C-alpha cells in the first residue's frame, strides 16, 4: 500500500504554485455601487464603525480611512489635487489617496488604506480591523 505525503499532487493535478490565483472575497464588504462614485468624486461609507472615504481617480477606486491624522478632519470632504491627492478641508494637509501617505504639514502620519475589489458593478473593500 502506498501513502502519498499530504502535500503531494496527483499525477494529473497542477502543482499549487502553477494554479491560477484565487480571489477570495471572504474578508471584503460590499459598500457601494460603482455608479455611486463617478470619476473625480468621493463617497463616505461606514464599515464596522470605521468611516471610509472612497475616491474614484480616473476610474480606479481607492479606499482610505476618513480621518486626517493631524486632527481628525473628514478627508472625504477634501479637494482632490494633483490627480491623486486629497487636501484636508480643515488645515490643508495633503494625503496620497493611493497609499494613504501624509504628504504635507500639518499631518505627518499616513491614514489607513483598504484594498478594493470591483465585482458585478459593486465596490467591495477589505474589512477594517
Ligand atoms: S485636521 Fe486635517 S490638516 Fe488639520
Topology:
Elements: E1 28-33, E2 42-47, E3 50-57, E4 60-65, E5 79-81, E6 85-87, E7 94-96, E8 113-114, E9 116-119, E10 122-126
Antiparallel strand pairs: 1-10, 2-3, 3-4, 4-8, 5-6, 6-7, 9-10
Report on this model:
- With 129 residues, the protein is an all-beta fold.
- It has a single domain (26-126), classed as Rieske [2Fe-2S] iron-sulphur domain (Rieske Iron-sulfur Protein).
- 0% of the residues lie in helices and 36% in strands.
- It has no helices and ten strands.
- A four-stranded antiparallel beta sheet has the order 2-3-4-8, with no helix packed on it. A three-stranded antiparallel beta sheet has the order 1-10-9, with no helix packed on it.
- Strand 9 and strand 10 (122-126) form a beta hairpin.
- It is globular, with a radius of gyration of 20 Å.
- Residues 1-11 and 19-23 have low confidence and may be disordered.
- The structure holds FE2/S2 (inorganic) cluster.
- FE2/S2 (inorganic) cluster binds at residues 68, 70-73, 88, 90-93, 106-107.
Number of domains: 1
Structural class of the helices, strands and pairings?
Answer: mainly beta
CATH fold group: Rieske Iron-sulfur Protein
Attached small molecules = FE2/S2 (inorganic) cluster
The CATH homologous superfamily is termed Rieske [2Fe-2S] iron-sulphur domain
Number of helices: 0
In quaternary terms, these chains amount to: single chain
- Beta-strand fraction estimate: 35-45%
Approximate helicity band: under 10%
What is the 3D form?
globular
Radius of gyration: 20 Å
The average pLDDT is: 88
Task: Report on the biggest sheet.
Answer: 4 strands, antiparallel
Number of strands: 10
State the low-pLDDT regions, or none. 1-11, 19-23
